[in-house]
Design goal:
single chain, 296 residues, D-Maltodextrin-Binding Protein, domain 2, 2 domains, 9 helices, 32% helix, 17% strand
Length: 296
């Protein structure tokens, strides 16, 4: 569990740096490509609450979906600072000069957040993979996490014990709609039967428990959480290897298309990466997902 003093220490360090330096989706992007794609909006030299054009002046409004899953959040309460994405959101806010009580959380569904049109948030953090298709509708910050996709199942299913992609091809697979997990099934596993699509990961888990699918594909940290906390006899079959060409699946914060905040938020994320804050938070919240066999 996150200890408040540790989070406050991380935020304080990030704030000092701010003063000094202030999906079905198409192919994912490398970190460098994500950075260049995210810089399309204003990169004002002043990234302070007094100058940032936030939705509510003096407030940094952050959105995520509900329920908010572990290990990204804890107890379905994004505002408690616990879980990797909650901690990152507060660290970015601190980097920009916002105190914890100046951060306001709102709910936005995954699909609504990446749809075209005005947003009721400044940023949304919800395991959004940065893709060229999505960048047509929204802005992204530079990446705060690079993630592998993974296959999760239960001990009694046909997927249990599978050690390679060939062993998955004739199985019934599923993923949440609109995610790169779905694309990973169609593009990398290419099963003989089309994958099932679910409105949420909770729905996918329920289908797995009911025997409607043999396995589901999610990002690797979520796979470990599902196997340990949501499934009886859950099993992480393995992770999918990096696609040919070296592209990685990178998570970025979502902003309105052309948002005046994009440049400053990206610079905040970059500073947190450079000073080691992102690595420390990953070790704290995502360490159990560090190892999983690669399915080839």
């Amino acid at each position: 569990m996150l200890r408040r003093p540790l989070l406050l220490t991380a935020l304080a360090g990030a704030s000092l740096l701010a003063v000094a330096g202030c999906a079905p989706q198409e192919g994912s992007t490398t970190a460098a490509e994500g950075a260049s794609g995210a810089a399309s909006a204003s990169t004002s030299s002043s990234c302070t609450p007094a100058d940032l054009q936030t939705l509510v002046p003096g407030t940094f409004t952050v959105a995520t979906d509900t329920p908010a899953y572990e290990p990204w959040f804890s107890d379905n309460d994004p505002g408690n600072g616990q879980g990797y994405e909650s901690a990152v959101a507060y660290a970015v806010a601190g980097q920009l000069g916002y105190s914890e009580d100046q951060v306001s959380w709102v709910v936005a569904s995954f699909n609504a957040a990446i749809a075209p049109g005005p947003k009721d948030f400044d940023v949304d953090i919800n395991q959004f993979s940065i893709t060229e298709e999505r960048k047509q509708a929204v802005d992204f910050s530079t990446p705060y996490y690079e993630v592998a996709q993974a296959v999760v199942t239960t001990g009694g299913s046909a997927a249990a014990g599978v050690t390679d992609l060939a062993g998955l091809k004739d199985l019934r697979l599923g993923a949440q709609v609109g995610t790169t997990s779905y694309s990973a099934i169609t593009d990398q596993i290419a099963p003989t039967t089309g994958p099932s699509v679910f409105n949420s990961n909770d729905d996918a888990v329920a289908a797995l428990v009911a025997g409607q699918v043999d396995a589901i594909v999610v990002d690797l940290p979520t796979a470990f959480y599902m196997a340990a906390a949501q499934l009886d006899d859950g099993e992480v079959v393995g992770q999918l290897e990096t696609p040919t060409g070296g592209a990685t699946d990178s998570f970025g914060m979502v902003l309105d298309k052309g948002s005046p905040l994009t440049g400053c938020v990206s610079r905040a994320v970059d500073a947190l990466r450079e000073d080691g804050t992102l690595d420390r938070l990953q070790q704290q919240w995502l360490d159990e997902a560090a190892e999983a066999p690669v399915l080839t």
